[in-house]
Design goal:
binds uracil, alpha/beta
């Protein structure tokens, strides 16, 4: 078999056989197939697509390129959750303890921030002492004791995806449904949970900018999950506007704790409850309505918040910061941006706001950058809200005073104030099962 012939085949829109996909991925991981040939293949896939069978096969081979985690040491049904990434998306911090408090098991490996989107591991590491690297035994033990453990991805989980993702990032081939679906689902299959809840974001701050593409991506991933024997459901949720009011690592932890304490923003609470209810449904805790009631109760009786605190302590973290937010390291510089005119917020570009948070220090400019956990933004007005000239729109937080001027300029460009009140988008567009 020759990679040259496989590239030619795909260039003409033909489907690759199972054996060809295995040859290609194994050869690429081993280093026998060079980046320049794989780049040509990725671009051919970008233009010509893949059949459902090819995508499923690609996913399976990518999953098996590293460790396939066996979670059988954890009692009960395990449910995983994956978000395709967003700005202010802190729902894992809310859903995971809700599901655990209601008797589900969440053994979750999360990622770091990528570009303008935040990552759960970075958020958790903003809690002083919290360890995101646990041994396999400690990870299983934590889930058995607390019902939940969230850690970072181990180095050998789907190494084919790691290599391919880095190549896609520099060859303009990230935005391709077969490649995104196989990338995400290879990691989910390798991570070993029985059930998978996918949160497919749609809108300006998401990989998928249109609802049609988001639904296509969700259907592709649900089909892969089901074919691999994992119960899989996807929700399509809005990422045109950031979720909640806080963007930045410790800022998002505090806002998530607000929701777990029965407070916090209504949009964040609603999306989190819908995700958590579906996770509970997947592990067989009842009908969707019963699961919703159960999830709400775990917030009202404080059990979800206490479950989160227990997990934090089990992973070496100081949970006193979750009860007294002033104990979090505080950003030394802050600035308020005020409205220059009255009207309504008619545009709020989530991606540009995510990029503003990176400039403030909340994300990584390069792979080597260190994160400023206290940096970020707290929005005071959201899409559709009425504002008066001089009203505070947002507060910026940073440890780099010099970043404030650029961040203010970026924020002002990311939003618009107009005369007509716009119609708000739904929070959840669709459910794919
Ligand atoms: N997240 C992933 O893990 N992979 C992609 O391709 C896109 C988003």
């Amino acid at each position: 078999m020759r990679m040259y012939d496989l590239i030619t085949k795909k260039k003409h829109g033909e489907a690759l056989t199972d054996a060809e996909i295995t040859y290609m991925i194994d050869g690429y991981v081993k280093g026998d197939i060079p980046d320049y040939q794989m780049s040509a293949m990725l671009m051919a896939i970008w233009f010509k697509g893949m059949t459902d069978h090819e995508i499923t096969e690609l996913t399976k081979v990518m999953a098996k390129s590293g460790d396939m985690i066996d979670l059988s040491a954890i009692a009960g049904k395990k449910v995983d959750k994956h978000s395709t990434g967003g700005v202010g998306d802190k729902t894992t911090l809310i859903c995971a303890p809700i599901v655990a408090a209601c008797g589900g098991k969440v053994a979750k490996m999360s990622g770091r921030g990528l570009g303008h989107t935040g990552g759960t591991v970075d958020k958790l590491e903003s809690i002083p002492g919290y360890q995101t690297a646990l041994s396999r035994e400690k990870f299983f033990d934590t889930v058995n004791k607390c019902g939940v453990s969230v850690i970072g991805q181990s180095g050998n989980l789907a190494p084919a995806d790691k290599k391919l993702y880095a190549l896609r990032d520099v060859t303009a081939t990230v935005d391709c449904i077969p490649l995104i679906a196989s990338s995400i689902m290879s990691k989910k299959l390798a991570a070993g949970s029985d059930c998978i809840l996918l949160d497919v974001k749609t809108g300006s701050g998401a990989f998928m900018k249109t609802l049609d593409d988001s639904i296509k991506l969700a259907q592709t991933m649900v089909a892969i999950g089901e074919l691999a024997g994992r119960r899989t459901v996807a929700l399509i949720t809005d990422m045109d506007t950031p979720l909640g009011y806080g963007i930045g690592n410790s800022i998002e932890v505090m806002e998530s704790m607000d929701v777990l304490k029965g407070e916090g923003p209504a949009d964040l609470r609603e999306v989190s409850l819908q995700l958590a209810s579906n996770m509970l449904y997947l592990v067989g805790k009842g009908t969707p309505e019963e699961c919703r009631t159960m999830a709400e109760k775990s917030i009202a009786d404080g059990s979800a918040f206490e479950t989160f605190c227990t997990m934090v302590r089990a992973q070496g973290g100081d949970d006193s910061v979750l009860r007294d937010y002033t104990k979090f390291p505080q950003a030394p510089y802050r600035a308020e941006i005020k409205a220059e005119r009255s009207g309504y917020i008619t545009k709020m570009n989530a991606e540009e706001i995510g990029e503003t948070s990176v400039v403030l220090g909340a994300g990584r400019e390069t792979k080597e950058s260190t994160i400023d956990f206290s940096a970020g933004l707290i929005l005071h007005k959201k899409y559709g809200d009425e504002v008066k000239e001089g009203d505070s729109l947002v507060t910026l937080y940073t440890s780099k005073e010099s970043a404030l001027a650029d961040a203010e300029k970026m924020y002002r460009e990311a939003i618009a104030i107009g005369d007509e009140q716009p119609v708000k988008e739904p929070l959840v567009y669709a459910r794919v099962e």
